[in-house]
Protein 1
Amino acid sequence: MIRPRGPDSLLILIPAFNEQAAVGFVVEEIHRAAPGVPVLVVDDCSWDATRDVARAAGAEVLPLPYHLGLGGCVQAGYKFAYEMGFDYVIRVDGDGQHDPRDIPRIFETLKSSGCEMVIGSRFVDGGADYTSLPRRLGIKFFRLVLRPILGQPVYDPTSGFVGVNRAALAVFSRSFPLEYPEIETLVVLQRRAFRFREVPCRFRPRKAGRSSITALKSFYYMVHVLLGVFVNILRYEGGRPRR
Amino acid sequence: MDRFLDVVAVLSGALIVVVLGSLRREHIRVEYSVSWLAAGVTMLVLSQSDTLLGAVAAFVGVAEPALALLFTGFSVFLLVFYRFSMIISTLRDANIALTQRVAILEYQVESLHEERETSQPG
């Protein structure tokens, strides 16, 4: 069973749904980039061999008995990490888009900055960018929307390459956006006066599969995320922002 | 006009019969049938009572009672749908929490089994 090892314990979390073609490679890369760091693949009820491939590559697997979608899948990993006593969690996508060699940089920033969340960003310091034009336009739109809400610029609000500390884990294990969680998560953090920082990271084309956000879903994505952002802004407990 | 009111009465009666039948066969639970039964009874009573329908028409400010009946039906079913949206949201949250809890517990139980097997000699 995965357990925290010593102070500043780190868990690498990989949410995965039908990622048998890439997840093994991702786990092996993580072991090379961060030796000794436990890797947990949360399998969102895949119907392919994701969990077997992940286990064979040396990861622990938390298999969900029912498909929850990305948010529920990530939250299961956060809950597990929080209950097991981990201090930090870094989420890496199972499709190979995130370069695990950036994990140490995110981890060091998490520890040294005291920020509750560190985002691996494609757009800070001109990192490589493999996003499509519609997605890039969407990111620019959300940058503009989020700037006044967050009180600071965010260059890559849709990045799933994120590290969180235990304070953020405590919040996310109780409440986490279910669909398209990345942008709403930033607003959730802001409502609790948490801080985040972006660090430049390398993004690569996905090793296999396609993005869950297709052209047809883009409109729904925009409306859903905008609604989620404003709902989180309006959400108060006892007349004060939630802590 | 009378025909329209009769059609609404028949449909309301059918709704009540269907809901009661589903209750009898335990296809829906009592607490979730109340909204549908209330909606059916409201529409049935309004469609058969000129006095009540006239009062509703006067209240919402329409001259045509049929329009008042449509407005009432729309409002009642909107409330029913809203109530069920709330119930579905609550159930979805509970379902997610339970799924995550089951996954974590299953993982822990299997891990403990494996650890016990490897620690036992032979």
Protein 2
Amino acid sequence: MKILDPRIVREDFPILHRKINGHKLVYLDNAATSQKPKQVIDSIKYFYENINANPLRSVHTLAEKATEVYMDSRKKIAEFLNAEQDEIVFVRNATEAINLVSFSFPFKPGDRVATSYIEHHSNLLPWLELKAAGIKVDVVGVDGNSELDMAYYSKPRKDLRLVAVSQESNVTGTINNVKEIAKDVHKNGSYILIDAAQSAPHMEIDVKDIDADFLVMSGHKMLAPFGIGVLYIKNSVQPIMKPYLRGGEMIKSVKLDKITYESPPQMFEAGTQNISGAYAYGVAVDYLKRIGMRTIQNYEKGITRYLYNEARKIEGIKIYSGKSRQYGSIFSFNVDGLHSHDVAYFLNKKGIAIRSGFHCAQPFIEDKLHIEGTARASTYFYNTKEEIDIFLSELKSIVRKYGRR
Amino acid sequence: MDDDRFYQLMEIYRNPEHQGELEDFDRSSEGYSSSCGDRFKVFIKLEKGRIKNISFRGDGCVVSTVSISKVCGYVIGKTAQEVEKMDIEDIKDLIGIQNISVSRVKCATIGLETIKQALLVGHQADL
């Protein structure tokens, strides 16, 4: 396996060279959004200077070129997930993808859907909303180590139609065994939706191996621009789904008394899409593949282990993440006696960017962790061991100066 | 904000004035910030249309806690109309920070907003 040298990849990320409050930027808010390499940034400019046209319909050269790059990106992302091209639907982000499924899946009153306590609000709210339509909603529990109650999934439930679960938690970093969950879910005749927004940037995903029915991801967390994401829908599941948004480019024929819809993925892509975003998403995926997802995962494991080993020695902080058997590059913590916002404020003064607050997982943080929020540092493959040292040294200084005495 | 000013605010944060629950109050309301999880409850005793006494309970960051504590001290003796006119500019003076960054405006104003809410629509205590 290749060994990743962060000093080399960092050269591709212009923003990593800027200064914040007079200090070198240490960007540790990657779970919120990743930074973008110049290849992706340049591709957006290239698109608008050389390709820009409305794809799919017009026959002129530019429109055909726009169609070509759009389809080519679909192909790249399909290969990235080991999916078929017509299983890839472009959407705005993971949130839109999950809302789409909650709307288009053929639920009937009396059906049951399962989400979990460890989900981001985007994989919680669309399901909770279904209660109003007479759908029962189970929220699968987690234990003290932030591990899902796996027994829930293996128990047969006749009315359970769909299980929605994340592959990696954005608060605790817990990596769920979605392949095992999918096996149980399918044994019981239900469908599974996997929220890969947090996992896809960091690990190899094979939708066939997992046997996912639906899988969602956001481009902006994996080097692509904002406003472009992907919903994977397994071919055999597509016929049961009804259209989501209705409008242009998603129909075969329109008569006032009869509408024939396109097949997926077009059926779910009404209106002019974010073509430059999709194009840049393809470039982002090329970039990740060139380094290799296994190389990325291996490198991140190393710096995450180092971060945890050193942070566990610090007295005066509480760590909420990294308790599960498998976890990603997320470090959630609090300094005793300080609000997470104030910790983030102090770190920012030294150029260190982290997230603080609820991380869009309020029920988990309030009901399971019994706190008012956490500070969260999250790394990506361009973060260095030196940056972890800068973060840890500032954290120690905050504990010393402002922590509970 | 320089380190010295923040250090002073930390001292106030550790031991804020007007913290606690009034036994005798006319109005009460709860304020909550969904982004940070800050949660405060205020208790107000009125007399002849003016705030006679006021206190707060709850947890927040340095900015929100110092702000609610300072606003409580400031509004004693004021009418609901006078409090309604207050805004972020008054808070800047009260907490002594002029450059409140955009992400902290909510922290700075949650106390004042909760007090306004209590005065306008807050639950009347059972007297």
